[in-house]
Specification:
Helix Hairpins; 3-stranded antiparallel sheet; 41% helix
């Protein structure tokens, strides 16, 4: 949620912010209109309560008919106050519902644009592999290696599920341990979070007013949702708390299974491992002081890059434009790894500074001296296993269909090569 006081003081900035995120700037005027109505109702309620206090103070000094008259006035006034209180609540609920529709304003460095075609590459790393044989995509490689089974998964669960088998499981576990060990060495606290969370948590983290059931699996009768990323429970782990400024930044690395409905996505991104309904992920979350969150943002991106560099995967870092930026993020980088099967870079990591947007919705503050303020929350992918496996298979494939294991992972796998089983 945005700061209503700041919107009152500088509505034009928020109109710019909405235009920059390709949203209707008229929302600002609607907020201001509802804010005026709410404050007017609150002012009337305050006047009624003040009148009630004055009349109540007079009653002990009165007697007879005059006293009875004043008591009747107080009863009528109490009924008016109850009506006024209901109006204030209704006005505030209406105001809050529109406020919840406003996204986090983008940072001034976020480029203008409509969608992913307007995102801006900012740097590249690594050389793309050159093959002297016809390269295979990860689906063909995974089937030949005996580590992927899409057909049986479709029978048990439907499309966009998969069985990961044999040494593929060992490779995924190696990636998990590798990422966690690296981040623990950087001072992150490892966490296995719940994978079912209340709808308030999802809305607090993702923004909006209602759950996006195109993306979120929901268990309606229990008011629970399957998480799409461990960012959501990790951020909410401190909801409605006041942290000590001296503890910041507080950094966590979450390990979890993630679930996404991905309704409405088709084409090449729905093939194989690139966009599935269930996957494992290692995620970074940081609670930072507002004065240092932009420095923290660049630090998290640098950790993502160091992880991918150790895996030897060529990549580029892309700055996300305003129109492709979700509600919570004020600024976001994607890290895209080269995927030979696509003949293009594909997103494997994202890293967002959500400033105080999630903290306001979830009530996460910090105390410094005699004041409290909202923390800034940041999140970044350490490794998303399906897309990392995809990239490793395709970039490290050999002419005989085997796949080399990056040297950084060998101590975790105990083997150096994945070999075909057929």
């Amino acid at each position: 949620m945005i700061d209503l006081k700041k919107l009152r003081e500088d509505p034009e900035f928020f109109r710019w912010a909405l235009r920059h995120k390709n949203r209707d700037p008229g929302l600002v005027d609607r907020v201001l209109e509802l804010d005026r109505a709410w404050r007017a109702a609150q002012h009337r309620l305050d006047e009624l309560r003040a009148q009630q206090n004055r009349l109540s103070e007079e009653v002990p000094r009165l007697s007879g008919e005059e006293r009875q008259h004043r008591i009747r006035q107080l009863r009528e006034l109490a009924a008016s106050i109850r009506e006024a209180e209901q109006e204030v609540r209704a006005r505030r609920e209406e105001l809050d519902r529109v406020l919840l529709q406003l996204p986090n304003p983008p940072h001034p460095s976020v480029p203008a644009g409509t969608d992913e075609r307007d995102n801006v590459p900012v740097r590249y790393w690594g050389a793309k592999p050159q093959f002297d044989f016809p390269p295979r995509d990860h689906i063909e490689l995974g089937l030949a290696l005996g580590i992927l089974d899409f057909e049986r998964a479709a029978s048990t669960s439907g499309t966009r599920f998969y069985f990961l088998r044999g040494d593929g499981v060992r490779l995924q576990l190696a990636l998990t341990h590798f990422a966690v060990d690296f981040l623990v060495s950087e001072g992150f606290v490892p966490v296995y979070p719940p994978t079912l969370v209340r709808s308030r948590v999802v809305l607090g983290a993702m923004g909006g007013v209602d759950l996006d059931e195109q993306m979120v699996y929901r268990v309606a009768q229990d008011d629970l949702c399957l998480i799409g990323t461990s960012e959501h429970p990790l951020v909410a782990m401190h909801m409605d708390e006041v942290l000590d400024a001296g503890q910041l930044p507080m950094r966590y690395v979450g390990v979890s299974t993630c679930y996404r409905r991905e309704a409405g996505t088709y084409g090449r991104e729905s093939r194989g491992l690139y966009r599935v309904h269930q996957f494992e992920k290692v995620e970074m979350v940081s609670f930072a002081h507002p004065d240092r969150s932009w420095e923290e943002h660049e630090y998290l991106v640098s950790l993502e890059e160091r992880l991918v560099q150790q895996l030897g995967l060529p990549y580029r870092v892309v700055l996300i434009c305003g129109g492709d930026l979700g509600d919570p993020a004020a600024k976001k980088y994607d890290l895209e790894v080269w995927m030979p099967g696509r003949g293009d870079y594909g997103e494997t990591h994202s890293c967002s500074n959500c400033t105080d947007f999630q903290a306001r919705r979830l009530g996460i503050r910090f105390r410094e001296g005699g004041r409290t303020d909202y923390v800034h929350t940041l999140n970044g992918t350490a490794l998303a296993m399906t897309r990392t496996l995809l990239a490793l298979l395709e970039n490290y494939q050999q002419p005989d269909g085997s796949v080399r294991i990056p040297q950084a992972l060998v101590p975790y796998t105990g083997f150096e090569v994945l070999r075909p089983v057929r």
